Amino acid sequence: MSDMMDTLRNEKNMTPKQIDILRAAVELIAEKGYYNTSTSEIADRAGVAEGTIFRHYRTKKDLLVAIVTPVISNFSAPLFAEQFVAQVFREAYATFKELLYAFIKNRFEFAQSNVPLIRILLQELAFHPEIQTVYKQQFSEKVYPALNQAIDFYKQKGELKDMPNETIIRTIVSTILGFMMTRFMLKPDQNWDDEAEIKQTIDIMMDGLGKV
Amino acid sequence: MSDMMDTLRNEKNMTPKQIDILRAAVELIAEKGYYNTSTSEIADRAGVAEGTIFRHYRTKKDLLVAIVTPVISNFSAPLFAEQFVAQVFREAYATFKELLYAFIKNRFEFAQSNVPLIRILLQELAFHPEIQTVYKQQFSEKVYPALNQAIDFYKQKGELKDMPNETIIRTIVSTILGFMMTRFMLKPDQNWDDEAEIKQTIDIMMDGLGKV
Amino acid sequence: MSDMMDTLRNEKNMTPKQIDILRAAVELIAEKGYYNTSTSEIADRAGVAEGTIFRHYRTKKDLLVAIVTPVISNFSAPLFAEQFVAQVFREAYATFKELLYAFIKNRFEFAQSNVPLIRILLQELAFHPEIQTVYKQQFSEKVYPALNQAIDFYKQKGELKDMPNETIIRTIVSTILGFMMTRFMLKPDQNWDDEAEIKQTIDIMMDGLGKV
Amino acid sequence: MSDMMDTLRNEKNMTPKQIDILRAAVELIAEKGYYNTSTSEIADRAGVAEGTIFRHYRTKKDLLVAIVTPVISNFSAPLFAEQFVAQVFREAYATFKELLYAFIKNRFEFAQSNVPLIRILLQELAFHPEIQTVYKQQFSEKVYPALNQAIDFYKQKGELKDMPNETIIRTIVSTILGFMMTRFMLKPDQNWDDEAEIKQTIDIMMDGLGKV
DNA sequence: GATGAATGAGCGTTCATTCAT
DNA sequence: GATGAATGAACGCTCATTCAT
């Protein structure tokens, strides 16, 4: 949980009450959804007067955006900018499989620490243009180009089948998202051998997408 | 659209007004979400008095359930009961790949005719226990057992890798859902060669899940 | 009071509750001002649920406009269009003084029956652009042109001093308004000999503005 | 503007911040009215913390009273006490017309320098008993008696018609107020020949009220 | 003296639901 | 069966005021 608040604390200085508000809002919205959570409930759980919420966030929607924006940024952070692409080209990963493994491990841990945040993102994305804007920009400007370059690179090395990058990306994203949603949201209480499951999932993807 | 109303008309006899209400509700809820759609808006668009809605549906929630329940039933209908499993055992499909193809083609067409309904299901599932109950029951009692039996069958025939059925199912469902959501909801306006895309997707799944 | 409601009922069909709401709103706003009157108070006094107000008036401001607009129209109604000017030219009034007398008598009675409405108009005009718009349009398109034509007419007949029409109008309006506000708002409880006071006021204006 | 602050600075010693607060409050309240101006806005414009306002004025209403009271005092100051009446009896003004001219010139200049303050007084008088009390006391104890004595004096000299003093006062006040409100508030941007307009207005009053 | 975070009562408004017609 | 006026609880939000620093 403290981990989760780190994701949100990307901002400069927050008062303790502001942190309480964020934490309460995340808990309630993750559990019941944005429209089923009233600002008075959030204030109650945060141990704060309702007006205090609006001192820190102009509107309830602003509060939601303050929760969701850092998740979008952080989730795709590893793909950012030169860092990621540079590593690929510097051959930091011997194979695409190794890259995939490193990537999934890293994002798996992030997801694990931020389940409520990611749940909110997934649940509310459909309803709030404000979030969609942030998401689309992040995806089209950061995530997609980075993945695209990496895939081109490994295609040239002959490691990936000759099919549209978009299909490859869609398959990878669907598979990873499907795994993580099952793992953390649908059946979090099942006994999971995470390491085995990740490896299994990567094997499937590599067999499906990789060249023999 | 008439197709979509067929999906909903599974019920007994509906008056024309009731159909108008359902159609209006589907359009509005698909576009703006359940909580952003008021019953007065629905009544307006349906050309009906607000009270009339409550003559047919006790509550607004009931109306939502009336929309979503048939989608859940119909989407998994082909997997229902003996029919599907019987066909598998009767070797109606020469290979798992053929089964997959038949299944996806069929569900693709259903999805195409019911985009707004499916959008509503996916968007609202997270927020309404009433829907979750229906969904879980349908999945655990119908979908999962059917898929399970089929997968066991093809495993014995040596067509599928030796991995947990749950992993196989999760991969298939994720990949198909990822494809259909991209196709119909995220990028519906892109130029799609549906037949090629479906075949491509099946090839990936077969390479990933199938035995060489 | 029933007279006052006539002024407001210019609209088509109003339900009894809507009339109750208007009456309550007029009473409270006249007494305490728009910003000191809450919609819940209005609902209470009208014997109506608060929501009922918003069924008839989209916003609180709309309610105010519904009160004030008819007052503006009705107060200047006698000056409207051809009727008034035509009468002047047809020499329905032998002298300017007679015209003034007829006009003041008539408006005096209107004011007497609509004190709360006029109080609201005068009090709120300064704060609500919505009202100002209606007022300015009415004054510049109806009131001012009518007075202007009438004054020109009596100037040519040699009954009025040669001074700018605007000065004449300002003097007349100030004097009449000053009288009526004193009579009905500042000292309504003083013993007034209305007929004498009106005649006196007209004499003053005629001596001040008329040619010897 | 510095002139306007002089009107308000009648009080003891004011810190620079207090002056900033007053100035900001006057600007905002004159423009938007008391109820449309929040203390936080005033603090913002004054460059002061919100709490600072309440260090100098116990309540927001106190702040309003601090603005409006000096206007009331100053506007009627020339009529104050013995000074004015003594001058009249000492025959400092040859005629009532001269008195009127001196009075109007003087008050015109005061009004010109204090438009925002007077606007606030006129706009808010109706809504705040605290202001009404100050106003009534000032008028009934200072303004009215002074005017009354002066009018009696000139009546005895045969310069004024024989009509109730109250009617005379009402006419004068209405005419002057009507002129000044038109000049400074309704049409401040029109081209005005102030000297001519004042003389014209006095001529009208004298013809209307004076004996031939 | 000055600050500004915190308060909480109160506001205007929405909307699912009821019910007399 | 259908209507739509009426309801009232609940909501997001504002703002004058307080008080620890």
UniProtKB/TrEMBL annotation, chains A, B, C, D:
<feature type="domain" description="HTH tetR-type">
    <location>
        <begin position="15"/>
        <end position="75"/>
    </location>
</feature>
<protein>
    <submittedName>
        <fullName>TetR family transcriptional regulator</fullName>
    </submittedName>
</protein>
<feature type="DNA-binding region" description="H-T-H motif">
    <location>
        <begin position="38"/>
        <end position="57"/>
    </location>
</feature>
<dbReference type="InterPro" id="IPR036271">
    <property type="entry name" value="Tet_transcr_reg_TetR-rel_C_sf"/>
</dbReference>
<dbReference type="Pfam" id="PF00440">
    <property type="entry name" value="TetR_N"/>
</dbReference>
<dbReference type="InterPro" id="IPR009057">
    <property type="entry name" value="Homeodomain-like_sf"/>
</dbReference>
<dbReference type="InterPro" id="IPR050109">
    <property type="entry name" value="HTH-type_TetR-like_transc_reg"/>
</dbReference>
<dbReference type="GO" id="GO:0006355">
    <property type="term" value="P:regulation of DNA-templated transcription"/>
</dbReference>
<keyword id="KW-0238">DNA-binding</keyword>
<dbReference type="InterPro" id="IPR001647">
    <property type="entry name" value="HTH_TetR"/>
</dbReference>
<dbReference type="GO" id="GO:0003677">
    <property type="term" value="F:DNA binding"/>
</dbReference>
